[in-house]
Amino acid sequence: MKRKVGVLFLAIFFVLIGSAYAELKVAVVNMQKALDECDAGKAAVEEMKKLYSAKQKEISEKQNELKKMQEEINNQSALLSEDAKQAKLDEYQQKLKDLKRYVADSNEELKKKEQEFISKIATDLKAVVEKLGKELKYDIILEARESGVLYNSGKVDITSLVIERYNKEWHARKK
């Protein structure tokens, strides 16, 4: 008797679970693709290119200054006293050290700025995904690359919809 009740209970349990899964609405979104292809992401890339170019120009100017200084030292070494030569070498070494520090600081600044862009856009994209999930009545939306999704048919990929919706919101905020 107990066995029949247990089997009946399991049968009902599996029928209920099966019907619950039949109604489950799942989607995937590739957040990296959305980040790369949305207009805000493209604008951030352009902004980063400008910042990088400006820093690279400053670094090149400082490198040229050091190169000229080294040439002066080489050309004047026979004419300078040991103290004057040492003073020039010390100045050169200090400027070289300053340049290395500037390059490291610039790299750190650029990384920080890039992270700020990524963080802001990713937060906004997540909000769009959440809105779409509620609006389109999805039960689960998985990140295609991070959640361990090994395959999806493409039918459940809403990345292009997320990009489209985000672009509309982003352009509306810019006005």
From TrEMBL:
Organism superkingdom: Bacteria
Family: Belongs to the Skp family.
GO BP: protein stabilization
InterPro entries xrefs: Chaperone_Skp, Skp_dom_sf
Keyword Chaperone listed: no
A GO cellular component entry from the record: cytosol
Protein known as: Outer membrane protein OmpH
Record keywords: Coiled coil, Signal
Coiled coil: 45-116
